[in-house]
Amino acid sequence: MKYLLVANAYPNKDRIYSNTFLHRRVKSYQQKGLEVEVVVMSTKVIHDEIFDGVTVKYMDEYQLTDYVNTCPEIKTILIHFMNQKMFTAVSQIEREVNYIIWLHGFEAEPWYSRYYNYTVSKKALSDQLAKIDYYEKQRNMFQTLYKMDNVTFIFVSESFKKYYVDPFVRQAPPRYYIIPNLIDEKLFPYREKKEADRFKVCNIRPYTAPNYANDITRDVILKLSKKKYFKKMEFSLYGDGPLFKEMTEPLEKFENVQLYQGFVRQDDISDIHAHNGIYLGPSRHDSQGVSLCEAMSSGLVPISNDIGAIAEFVEHGRSGFLAGRDQVDEMVFYIEKLINNPELFMQMSVYASDMIIKKTGTENVIKKELEVMIHD
């Protein structure tokens, strides 16, 4: 029996960081003895290739339909980032096939769940309103999929399902599981922290939209600059996007704030974690908060906001601290608490890594996914 994973993108020799979390899944499935092939939805003519031992094919929706219809060993199709082209293929497949569909975020929630992203200009709002038909088609698609007996859904968090997807689709799916995206503890290994590391704060985020809360990161640092201990602190901010200059310009005057504009390679993230003790990761919208989870795996203590699904992954007061939405002063308070309590910082660092690996570590997540894939 062959498993077919269908996605919107997958790593290749030219884009090795494209949906790498999917590649880690596939390699884990292979290690467990499963035969897995990947199809990337594409209208371009691209030859099949082997990437790190994984066969990757590029097909449009009609080629995918024909391929599955003529390949009887494919019994289960695994789909990530479900879209209309994938749905067209599913609708035309004539063979009896089981589908497992992972829901991660944007593909299954209303545009207004991130309304603040479109208040920056009239054009941003008008451009989004012009896509209303897209969201209606997505809703209809999921309503149809919910009625199919051979479809099972996997949500990355309970909060994402309850507060975003269910209201958007206007009903709950009959068959689903809650399984988070995995965090590879080999890629983000725990490194024991020293008490002095509580003065070292990092942030790795895109600077593309308000939901990433880069303004909160900036404002927290500006507030901390009024504190006596500020000169002892070190801040490292990584990321890129059209908002980078605007968000970070007020911080350029500080010698202890290092600004690194550019894409951060995944291999480099672990090294950044190794040189820091606190991960300042404010947010306005998260279905899981993968960057927070990665930092916790490395032993950093996260400071974030109690929004979306973050509280499912950060245990307030034990593995990190969660402030209210947009609460800059509260985040400053929690950082100060760690600075004034080195023993607490050390305890939380150990617990953060231990807890997140138990919840999102590779072995645990893959075990749960295989149970669904093989037995459901």
UniProtKB/TrEMBL annotation:
A Pfam family the protein falls into: Glycos_transf_1
Keyword Transferase found: yes
A Gene Ontology molecular function term of the record: glycosyltransferase activity
Species assigned in the record: Macrococcus brunensis
Domain Glycosyl transferase family: 223-352
Source organism, top-level taxon: Bacteria
Keyword line: Transferase
The protein's name in its UniProt record: Glycosyltransferase
